Amino acid sequence: MTSAEISKDMPARPAAREADEGARLGLRLTLPAQLLVLFISVFPLLMQLYISLTDWSPLSGLGWPRAYELWNGFANYVDVAGDGRLWSALGRTALVMVVCVPVEFLLGLALATLFADSFPGKRVFYSILIMPMMVVPAVAGYMFYMLFQSGGPVNDILSSLLGMPVTVAWLSDPMLAMLAVMVADIWQWTPLMFLILLAGLVGVPEDQMKAATLLGASPWQKFRTIVLPRMKTIIIIALAIRVIECFKIFDTLFIMTGGGPGVATETISVYIYKITTQDLIWGYVAAIALVILLVLSVACVWAIKRMARKERAA
Amino acid sequence: MRRSPAFEAFRYAAILLACAITLVPILWMVSMAFKPIAEWQATGADLTWFPKEPTLDNFRYIFGESGSNLIVALDRTAAKPILSSLLSASLGTLIAMAAGTSAAYGLSRFGAGGNLPLALIQLRLFPPMAVMIPVMMMWSFLNLMDTWWGLALIYGIVTLPFAFWLMKTFFDDMPREIEEAALVEGCSRGRVFWRITLPMMRAPLASAALFVFILNWSDYLIALLLTTREWVTIPVYMASLSSSMTGQLYGAKAALGLIAAVPPVFLGIMIQRHLVRGLTFGALKQ
């Protein structure tokens, strides 16, 4: 029985009053969250928009409300388009994304496949394998900073594998520093892929798999025709989460290299951090931030609409 | 399903290799935390995976005892940063859970909230770095810079989406018969929420709160920008444990890293069952 049906038999609580009470309570309950979201979106956006049209900086000796005295129109936005360092940072962020996300996905999927049925010791191995994603990212960054020192354990392992002394200065070489940063990201976030994909794999019905085996399907065929279609949504969610988080990449990388050597590992968040705290050109930073927010908002709305349309079509 | 012995052998080999790769960085930091200063930078043949002379000096050092005269005494100990991390992450969790749980109930039962779910997804999508300038301006206007309660407020907002989506899926899953029975008894809707629903949801609430706490505890970037001296958190303090005078204080940093890493790993393994749900915004359940 639903609550509406119950209320019909209860003359003391007519359905209309009941619904009204629910609506009012619903409004009250969602109010704090609404206010917090407004607080963090409306004011910051307006302030950001305002100072992005000026040359204001915390060093300019003016309070930010008087930033209009440093009005420069759309000059900051014009600068954004021609900011080579910004575009390289964006390119590096994209590079981390296109290398790390697929590697994490494939490793995670392989591990999840190994964990699909039960075997002795499964729980212990599972707990060990998901540990990295719970390590504070800044601490993970420090772990890999130590590992990749030129006299550190990575070179030690390589030395014993290759049978000759290896003393590569990983974090001071532009290419190798990038590689080291990616290794750290893969170490920390493959477990997330593993966890999500395993949750999806467990939902695949075993009798279908058995039937396919009896019909002589190869493992790859079974994977492609039975497992993959069922896991499509899960795979999309897992990839989306990692792409979004990869775009924000900061903590681990910043502790390991600080964006260096030079600007070799400077991603978008590191670049914004640096011009915020070192160059202090806040009007310009606000312009960059707004452009990023705008692009991401459009992309987000587009993706959600597309997914909703596909769902309707299906 | 029966598997061939060859497959079993391959499976164990692959899993053991993955576990080894997973554990090496952790093991190295744990080992470093117990190494005396002489072993911090050992290389080549001197490099060992376990401390030759294990010591608690590194822990004593970050809490203010300068165990070795090779390194200068710290002008601040790790005690206050640990307190700052604890307080800000806890209050942040409280804010996120209070606002998130009530909003989730409002949406789950009464369809209230309008655009809130979408706004919360967007909040998660944006890089925090892209809103930090106005946040810094607002925080200094509100005198919240370099305070643990100022950090807690922004943590509460940043993790609100997780609290909201987690609790919404928990409320959606909860059978409604008991609530409805209470309504028939003449309880008001608000009373049902307080007296019936919330006590019944104690276990999910605890899991969600622990999950949100881990996220808050893990922050580095926000604390880096909003705290400067008085209330820096563990990761910010840790990064400051190196200077041109002392060089990298490897062992001390590792000891602090260990202290920072233990609570979330422990709590995370405790709430294993809900990790997938939390990380995928409730889109997936285990």
From TrEMBL, chain A:
Main location: membrane
Keywords: Cell membrane, Membrane, Transmembrane, Transmembrane helix, Transport
Transmembrane annotation, as ranges: 33-51, 94-115, 124-145, 186-203, 281-304
Membrane topology recorded in Swiss-Prot or TrEMBL: Multi-pass membrane protein
Pfam families, sorted: BPD_transp_1
Gene3D superfamilies, sorted: MetI-like (1.10.3720.10)
Stored PROSITE patterns: ABC_TM1 (PS50928)
ABC transmembrane type-1 domain residues: 90-303
Domain of life the protein comes from: Bacteria
Compartments where located: Cell membrane
PANTHER family: BLR7065 PROTEIN (PTHR43005), SPERMIDINE_PUTRESCINE TRANSPORT SYSTEM PERMEASE PROTEIN (PTHR43005:SF1)
Similarity remark: Belongs to the binding-protein-dependent transport system permease family.
Name the UniProt record assigns to this protein: ABC transporter permease subunit
Species assigned in the record: Paragemmobacter ruber
Automatic annotation (TrEMBL), chain B:
Membrane-spanning parts: 12-34, 82-107, 119-142, 148-167, 205-227, 247-271
Keywords for the protein's UniProt record, in alphabetical order: Cell membrane, Membrane, Sugar transport, Transmembrane, Transmembrane helix, Transport
Protein known as: Maltose/maltodextrin transport system permease protein MalG
UniProt KW Transmembrane keyword: yes
General function of this protein: Part of the ABC transporter complex MalEFGK involved in maltose/maltodextrin import. Probably responsible for the translocation of the substrate across the membrane.
Family named by the database record: Belongs to the binding-protein-dependent transport system permease family. MalFG subfamily.
Residue intervals of the ABC transmembrane type-1 domain: 82-271
Predominant subcellular localization, coarse grouping: membrane
Domain of life of the source: Bacteria
Native source organism of the sequence: Paragemmobacter ruber
Membrane topology: Multi-pass membrane protein
Subcellular location: Cell membrane
Lineage, top ranks: Bacteria, Pseudomonadati, Pseudomonadota, Alphaproteobacteria, Rhodobacterales
